[in-house]
Design brief:
- It is flat, with a radius of gyration of 34 Å.
- About 2% of the residues have low confidence.
- With 294 residues, it is α+β, with helices and mostly antiparallel strands.
- Helix content is 31%, strand content 10%.
- Strand 7 and strand 8 form a beta hairpin.
- The strands form four sheets. A three-stranded antiparallel β-sheet has the order 3-2-4. It has a three-stranded antiparallel β-sheet with strand order 8-7-9. It has a two-stranded antiparallel ribbon with strand order 1-10.
């Protein structure tokens, strides 16, 4: 009777635990790992710097950024797009120049053939047709074909092998896109966010060291990764989803400034999650690898 334990080695079956253990130690096969609490950003942290925002702004899709970080990102992307456009235009002009040169060479070839026909239409007709046929067929890639085998006995000559063409540059997307959602990112679409700090009368502890930093602007409920929250576009205030459903949606008026709200003015705030409670965020990392077949 075999022992019922993870380290049992007397069994006749290759168990799931042994397979996972061997996969992890060998590096073969697809490896999966669930993120822990320390691997997921907090709801009030920037999606670029992963640090608490000093001047938070939110996109229409609900992704939070520090204003300084997102401005640097937009500027960098615009410079990168300009550089890629310059490379694309250079490649395009080069291709047009090559086409013009090929057309010019074709016209010169036709002119030369016409002059030869007119100069000696009978004697060199066969030679001209033979030359045209060899030219249209193109040169042989092999170094051992035809009369070249006498001059080039070696098959492998690097200087005479076909050269690889340069990689073609595709026309870049001229619009700056959000690094999280992939949607078009414009500066005028960024909405300033006003978090309501928690009133715990603790002036000694810094804000970044506190586990509970902000509360709902209406109900004073503590905000966190496990609490769904929304941003009101009219004021930039952050309230919980429960407050929105039970209080604000009855008359659709912003409680902080009494302005009329529309559905597009309510932006669900994208948040992280702990290692135990999923909130719609992908919490599992997958790394594909080669598999050894028996």
């Amino acid at each position: 009777m075999t022992r019922h334990a993870k380290n049992c080695t007397a069994g006749t079956v290759y168990t799931y635990h042994e397979r996972k253990k061997d996969t992890k130690s060998s590096g073969y096969g697809t490896q999966k790992l669930r993120y822990g609490k320390d691997s997921v950003k907090e709801f009030d942290c920037c999606c670029l710097t992963l640090q608490p925002c000093k001047d938070p702004v939110v996109t229409p899709q609900g992704f939070l950024y520090d204003k300084e970080a997102i401005l640097e990102y937009i500027l960098h992307q615009k410079k990168e797009i300009a550089r890629k456009l310059k490379e694309y235009e250079k490649q395009k002009n080069k291709a047009e120049t090559e086409l013009k040169e090929l057309a010019k060479a074709e016209r010169e070839k036709k002119t030369h053939t016409f002059v030869q026909h007119e100069t000696n239409p009978i004697g060199n007709k066969h030679d001209i047709e033979k030359a045209e046929a060899s030219t249209s067929a193109g040169p042989s890639v092999s170094n051992m074909s035809g009369e070249r085998k006498k001059d080039l006995p070696s098959f492998w000559i690097p200087s005479l092998t076909p050269a690889a063409s340069a990689t073609k540059v595709r026309k870049p997307d001229e619009k700056v896109r959000c690094p999280m959602s992939g949607e078009v990112l414009r500066l005028k679409d960024l909405i300033p966010v006003k978090f309501t700090p928690i009133n715990d009368r603790d002036a000694k502890t810094s804000l970044i060291a506190k586990s509970a930093r902000f509360v709902c602007a209406v109900t004073n409920d503590v905000l966190g990764n496990s609490v769904p929250a929304v941003v009101l576009k009219t004021s930039g205030s952050v309230v919980t989803m429960e407050c929105l459903e039970k209080i604000i949606k009855k008359d659709m008026i912003d409680p902080t400034n009494s302005q009329k709200l529309k559905e597009k003015d309510i932006i669900p705030l994208q948040r992280g999650a702990s290692g135990f409670t999923s909130t719609g965020v992908q919490l599992e990392a997958v790394k594909a690898g080669p598999v050894l077949m028996a």
